[in-house]
Amino acid sequence: MSVLASSDCKETFVLNLGPQHPATHGVLRVKLTMDGEYIRHAEPVLGYIHRMHEKMGENRTWAQFMPNTGRLDYLSALSYNHGYVLAVERAAGIAVPERAEYIRVITVELNRISSHLVWFGAFILDLGGFTPLLYAFDDREIILDLLQAVTGSRLTYCYFRFGGVYNDIEPDFITGTLAFIKRLRERMPMYHNLVTKNIILIKRLKDIGFVPAEMCRKYGATGPVLRGAGVGYDVRRAEPYSVYPELDFDIPTYPEGDCMARYMVRLDEIEQSMRIIEQACAKLPDGPVMAEKAPKIIKPAKGDYYAAVEAARGSFGVRLVSDGTTTPYRLKLRSPSYSNLSLFGEASRGMLLPDALALMGSLDLVIPEIDR
Amino acid sequence: MNLHSEPIRLLAFLVGIIAFAALNAAYLVWLERKVAGHVQRRIGPKEVGPFGLLQPLVDGIKLMTKQVLIPDNIDPILFRLAPPLLLIPAVMSFVTIPFSETLVARDINLGLLMIFAFASINVLGILLGGWGSNNKYAVIAAARGVSQNVAYEIPMLITVITMVMITHTLNLNEIVRQQGGGIFNWYIFRWSANPLMLISFLIFFTCSLAETNRAPFDLGEAESELVAGYHTEYSGMGFGIFFMGEYANIVIGCSLATILFLGGWQCPFGLWPGVHWFLIKLYILIFTVILIRWTFPRTTIYGLLNLSWKVLIPFALFNLILTGAMIKIWPMIFP
Amino acid sequence: MISLALKSALAALAVNEAVVTDFAARGFHFDVTVAPDAVEAAAEILNLEGFFLEAITGVDWLADGQMEVVYDYNHSTTPGRVVIRARVSRATPELPTVSAIYPGALWHERETHDFFGIVFLRHPDLSPLLLPEDADFHPLRKDYTP
Amino acid sequence: MSGYFAEIFSGAKSLASGMGITFRYMFKPVVTVQYPHATLKMPERYRGHIELVKDPESGEPKCIVCGMCQRACPSGCITVAGDKLEGEKKKVLSKYVLNFTTCSLCGSCVESCKPGAIQFSREYNLASTRKEDYTIDLLQRLREQR
Fold first, then answer.
1. Which of A175, A357, D37, D146 has the largest count of CB atoms under 10 Å?
2. How many angstroms from the chain centroid is the CA of residue B93?
3. Structure pTM?
């Protein structure tokens, strides 16, 4: 590559980080050309768990593709459910009852918190601290229990349906959710004292791994990566969907663009999600959870449709092309981590290996979603 | 048979020291896992024996029965030499440690010097292990380990020189004897000798963490970056010996801190001095070391060097000068 | 929202009429079909306006003997989705790359090449990204049989 | 210079407070479940693999062999067959096999079932080293439950 040719130092070596490496969280491989511990060139190698979901979509009915969406990003599966049902509802013109919308928002935001908690733990694990991971899992376990009681599964949810949700929530769920939020509010200061204020962590994250807003734009990075660069872009506000316009929440942004900024964005997002859930629980109306007019067999009109949601990792988009039959003609899944990872090569150039791993951790990668 | 004859005494100590080092390695792993478990609100080992107490034994058997895989293209001599090179100096250092006034293998006058001489060898074990494995991760880890050890030996030795200036001796047993008669005679609280003694202790403790490659300075085996660092390619007992050497080093580091600052086998209130006080203090320090590992994230190599050169060395040097001044000026004011 | 100047600039490149679409029904605001040679020019216009590239994908229109490449652009501060389409023939599916303007397109174009066999001219590396490294098939083509 | 000392001081304080937290947590009760010795009860809606539902009156499966579940299943893991007995109007279930290796527990089959003849079981101890253990004959399972 050009980087090598232009460098004076010929003594570089290639380090294969992955596909089985503790820091890559799955089967991502990064081919690093290193000069000592400095990274000259980093090239992510993808596709180890590529499953061709898009081709599967072309061979199934619209409804049959639902379980696949939960298997893209195993940490915030409900957001991906949501993105897909939004796209199909838009294409087929299905209206969703208000109660179902509120239930969707509550469960998606719970899922977002659980996703951010896993990221938080795994990120500190990347940096060498083990204990916060298990504290975060302790909290996440409650979310999984809550969601399990509603959806029946713990990780790869398949809860939303075109025109509503699979089944109604029980009153226990609301009380359990509010109790959990109370608990997490009390635990957040602990997390900050244990981790955020820790001098070692500050030294490792502050001014490390710059991803400026312009780089985000060039690579199409969204979500906390973009918000950590100071751009307050959030699909929930930019293209309001579901009942988000009726809820009051802030979009945390930090202008620094370093690892610390992305870290703080996600921790603040946990707090904002808690606010959203509280409001949604208070406003939850009575009524059906499934549109009565929702057709059993979906046949959207010819044309192409797009729907985006704010998943935990950024903007998840679904582009549907319908030819008016019961199966999609083309189904494109735009996953946020894919774009977020694509900037890694440029952003990590010249960094030390541990800092590059901090940068990779702060991008919050989920490999099945990248490989699809 | 005369039980006090020198060869028998030495033999007894030899067996005792090796047993102490091996048992410590085994049960510190157990302690580490238990502490980690409870810190993380788990139980830790519990299946084998009561409270999982037999777990280290079973682990040991497992390690010994495992095949020692020797990868291709390694340096066959260095690869095999490295683990003993890490373990033997650590075990040798126990020779001069005074567990109590009488329970010391060799009460030599240069005990402190000898321990530091041996402590410098174990860097070689890390370097050769990393280099001999012919593995990129291991080489990076070895390079890190060496620069880290070299950087931290300086503040550590400066602090030790400060201590030697106060104690006037390198004999460890003598240093402990000087701290008799209650907690305020311990060097950590002997503020008449140097008001910054507490800082000296912290510098020494931090350095011994770094010297023993313990978290948060475990850059040499940073598992989320370098898989397993310099012992990536070692399996079975090769890995087991590295492990034992590491834990023996921790015990040595904490023993030295106990002896130099916390009064060794002396009792905090001047009564019943003996080996039990030494062990209590030692294990409190070791517990702190373990708790530190399960609390903090890892530093980076430049963070580590920054800490050494910008914080620890200036403070240690200041301490040295202050102590020298106190020794010379104090008697002039109060003759 | 999308400025009038931008709309007219893009409409100048369009092969047929540029459409202002109903966002609620379709999910994007502006839909332009351009000639394959004009995708770079369109990207340049959008780049100057501060748009970012969300995704590039293809659609295989087997019946028409054509393949469509779809570029999804979006703006982060003044939200407005612009869809740029270009149709190439199935026999010679070639069009220029936009990766010089948007480096993020590198991977999206590689993926589209993987799945459809569409060649992006002047792209530095079109080796398979998600498919196995020796893959010579294009699974999202409608005539693909495994 | 004062920043230098302030940083050392605040850094040391942060380290000490972190150690205080972990030390306090060490004495808090354990939150894990010691799995083989203790198990959790699955909630009402837990989605284990599917199972057939008995008709409380006749004791026979409620299934009417309509095949809706088989058609709804995205991964084709259900095989249903029925015999038409002489003199009976309805088919009688003769075979209901679930290939659990490809099942994604989406619940499409349970939703599509008009008579409510299938439901989720609450079984989760399904580890095995043999692939054949996951081809579950649900009809036989129902009969064994009797």
1. A357
2. 10
3. 0.88
pLDDT single digits (tens) B121-131: 888 888 888 88
State how far the Cα of B190 lies from the Cα of B178, in Å rounded to an integer: 11
Contacts of A83 in chain C (CB under 8 A): none
A 9-68 → B contacts, CB under 8 A? 13, 15, 21-23, 36-37
Residue B294's φ and ψ, nearest 5 degrees, are -90, 10
> With contacts defined as CB-CB under 8 Å, which chain A residues touch C70?
304, 319, 332
C-alpha torsion B312→B316→B319→B323, nearest 10: 160
DSSP labels, B53-93: TTHHHHHHHHHHHS-----TTS-HHHHHHHHHHHHHHHHHH
Q: What value does the mean pLDDT of chain A take?
A: 86
Interface predicted TM-score (ipTM) of this complex, two decimals: 0.86
Of A55, A238, A339, the CB nearest to C140: A55
The yes-or-no reply on A/C contact (3 CB pairs or more, < 8 Å) is: yes
CATH topology of domain D50-145: Alpha-Beta Plaits (3.30.70)
Distance from CA of D98 to the nearest CA of A (A): 17
Domains and their CATH numbers in chain A: 52-347 (1.10.645.10)
**Which alpha helices (DSSP H) does chain C contain, by range?**
4-13, 23-26, 39-48, 105-116
| DSSP strands (E only) in B123-194 | none
Q: How confident is the model at residue A2 (pLDDT cuts 50, 70, 90)?
A: very low
**Hey, of A71, A130, A146, A153, which one would you mutate to test binding to chain D, going by the most D CBs within 10 A of its CB?**
A153
> What's the pLDDT tens digit per position in A112-152?
999 999 999 889 988 888 888 899 998 999 999 888 888 88
Residue C60 sits in a domain whose CATH number is: 3.30.460.80
Rg (CA), chain D: 27
